């Protein structure tokens, strides 16, 4: 079994929403890359990242924070939120360690973020 710890991003911060309500976010930190490193130090090999602002806006909002997480985490990273722009890393530069995830149309990940 592979466990995916999650980092949810709102305004560049690591958060958790109460019942999916953007107005009821608990902030757990201001450094998403540090959180990614902490999960790696605890033994995580996979990570799930959601750009919550992007999920609500339909376009990537926390791209810089997502990039910092990808750079800091040595394992595989799933990125979601923000539709087709959720993955800020250009497809030509992606390795097997970065994938996209979405709950919408079948085949979206393959077209926009490479193979899942």
> Span from first to last CA?
17 Å
Number of strands: 6
Assembly form of the protein: single chain
Could you state the CATH homologous superfamily?
Answer: Aldolase class I
Q: What share of residues are in beta strands? A: 25-35%
* Helix/strand structural class: alpha/beta
Contiguous uncertain segments of 5+ residues: 102-108
Quickly count the helices.
4
Radius of gyration from CA coordinates: 13 Å
Overall average pLDDT: 80
Work out the count of structural domains: 1
For the largest beta-sheet, the strand count, sense and barrel status come to: 6 strands, mixed
Helix-strand pattern? EEEHEHHEEH
**CATH architecture annotation name:** Alpha-Beta Barrel
What is the CATH third-level topology name? TIM Barrel
CATH domain class: Alpha Beta
Proportion of helical residues: 25-40%
Strand order of the largest sheet: 3-2-1-4-5-6
Inertia-based shape: globular
Summarize the structure.
The protein is 28% helix and 29% strand. It has 116 residues and is α/β, with parallel strands linked by helices. It is globular.
Question: What can you see in these coordinates?
Answer:
- Strand 2 and strand 3 (21-29) form a beta hairpin.
- By secondary structure, the chain is an alpha/beta fold.
- It has a single domain, classed as TIM Barrel (Alpha-Beta Barrel).
- The chain has helices at residues 32-41, 52-57, 63-72, 108-113; strands at residues 6-10, 13-18, 21-29, 46-51, 76-80, 98-100.
- Strands 3-2-1-4-5-6 form a six-stranded mixed sheet.
- The protein has four helices and six strands, in the order E-E-E-H-E-H-H-E-E-H.
- Helix content is 28%, strand content 29%.
- The protein is globular, with a radius of gyration of 13 Å.
- The protein starts with 5 loop residues before the first strand and ends with a helix.
- Helix 1 runs parallel beside helix 3 (63-72).
């Amino acid at each position: 079994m592979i466990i995916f710890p999650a980092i949810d991003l709102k305004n560049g911060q690591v958060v958790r929403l109460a019942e999916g309500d953007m107005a009821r976010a608990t902030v757990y930190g201001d450094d998403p890359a540090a959180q990614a490193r902490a999960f790696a130090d605890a033994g995580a090999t996979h990570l799930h990242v959601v750009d919550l602002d992007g999920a609500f806006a339909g376009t990537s909002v926390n791209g810089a924070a997502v990039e910092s997480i990808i750079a800091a985490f040595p394992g595989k990273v799933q990125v979601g939120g923000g539709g087709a722009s959720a993955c800020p890393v250009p497809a030509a530069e992606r390795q097997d360690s970065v994938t996209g995830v979405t709950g919408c149309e079948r085949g979206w990940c393959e077209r926009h973020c490479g193979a899942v």
